[in-house]
Amino acid sequence: MQTELENYQASVIRAFFDKEGKLKNIPSQKKKKLIALEHIIRQLDDKEKISEPELNQFIKRYHEDFCTIRREFIVNGYMDRESGFYSKRLENQWAKWQDLK
């Protein structure tokens, strides 16, 4: 049985992603934005490092505004950036939408 948080997460994903998996628009509410970002970052392989052009191409599969989403990945602790390369952080280092009211 799904928890209330899992139900909320699923409803946000249904509301903001179309049937092809594209993000319709970037949510303005922080909690919903983090759910959308987490949904996208989970699709990225955990390989060591990814170049900025590779990351941009990955993000474009979900939304055209790759600059904003790439920045949000860094600001919210989903990724680290070093010398023009990006790496996915461990999940326990990500911003937690579950802690927001």
TrEMBL record:
Pfam families: DUF2087. It comes from the Bacteria. Residues 22-86 form the DUF2087 domain. InterPro entries: DUF2087. This is DUF2087 domain-containing protein. It comes from Fictibacillus barbaricus.
